[in-house]
Design a protein that fits this description.
With 97 residues, the protein is mainly alpha-helical. 63% of the residues lie in helices and 0% in strands. The chain is globular, with a radius of gyration of 13 Å. The termini are far apart.
Length: 97
């Protein structure tokens, strides 16, 4: 069975992580921006996608973007899980996520 990219959060998250690990932050951001759209056009990005993008920015040393994205995640009503908190906290100790 072939999975629809639009509905496969874990595939989208894996692409974001892959690009981030390769240092291709802009590509990771492009995938993140296109992610979460369903067939009806409604956007629904869950904590997995947000955490992946937080980790990309943290891993690549863009700590200001981690803070900015974390705040945006909260504004969109996404409750951070333990991994998202770890990514946010890592920036204060300058440790990779």
């Amino acid at each position: 069975m072939v999975s629809d990219f639009e509905d496969d959060v874990f595939l989208q998250s894996s692409l974001i992580e892959m690009y981030g690990k390769c240092g291709l932050v802009v590509k990771a951001w492009q995938v993140f921006n296109l992610s979460g759209f369903g067939y009806n056009g409604e956007r629904k990005r869950d904590v997995v996608l947000w955490t992946s993008m937080l980790a990309v920015y943290g891993r690549n040393g863009d700590f200001e973007k981690v803070i900015e994205l974390f705040k945006e995640m909260l504004r969109e009503g996404i409750s951070p899980d333990g991994v998202a908190f770890d990514c946010h906290l890592c920036l204060w100790t300058h440790q990779p996520c």
